[in-house]
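Worked example

This section walks through a single chain of length 281. The input is the sequence exactly as stored; nothing has been trimmed or padded.
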Amino acid sequence: MSSPAPLFFDSHMHTPLCKHAEGHPIEYMEHGVAQGLAGIIMTCHSPMPDGFSSRVRMFPEQFNEYCALVEAAADAAPEGFEVRLGLESDFFPGMEGWLAELHAKADFHYILGSVHWHIGEYMDKFWHGDLFAFQKQYFDHLAESAETGLFDSLAHPDLVKNASPVDWDYDRIRPFIEKALDRIAKTGVAMEINTSGLNKSYPEMNPGPRMLGLMAERGIPVVIGSDSHVPTRVGDGFDLALDYLSAAGYEKVSVFRRRERSDLLISEVRASFPLASALPG
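Given that input, the structure is written out below as tokens.
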């Protein structure tokens, strides 16, 4: 009996233009094919103006080069496998106009919004020595990013737990997460479950299971992304992510094409992407 046709995409990965990733998009494509995916969405870090966080992203003058790299991977892909152009764009108060213009410069399939608390510019403006206040500010910015209408989905939405893993107190921050999620749910913007969190200083997917459950309660759509910075991580942990989504109460998982969301039954994704796993414990 033949296996079902691939259905699902890895919707978060990078290129060497961000200065902290390795491998040509063609290599990411090849690994996606090997993993049984239907396609990938390249989402390298957005260029920003005036040298903003330039050590971890492409320069504005490299934007066309980025688009060309993704197109080369699409051209090299086997029949039936798609390579879609996306972008991981930083939300930072005051940069909304820049991002709106940037997002109009290419035919993107997917714009992934990120609040990167750890970049120097963010720390300089918003870190004042109070970790809990910093966490609250992060979740307020996460909600604000959804309310701008600039993004299709929000990346690694509890990333701030890595600011000081030993001090992460979910029960204490939960009311502020809930307020942020209430705001996000009103916008219709999706959120990501990012499998790379398992490799971070707080070794848990972003978001963790309890926040994922709060998202499910509010009907917030979810996209899965590996956040690959090397080709061999494409599709990594997706079997476990599907388990977590089901445990949280999700029946569907989302992908984007031409900035439009489509929802797939998790049961059908499992059948098309048959990797065995079980929740730990």
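What to look for: The chain has one domain: 9-272.
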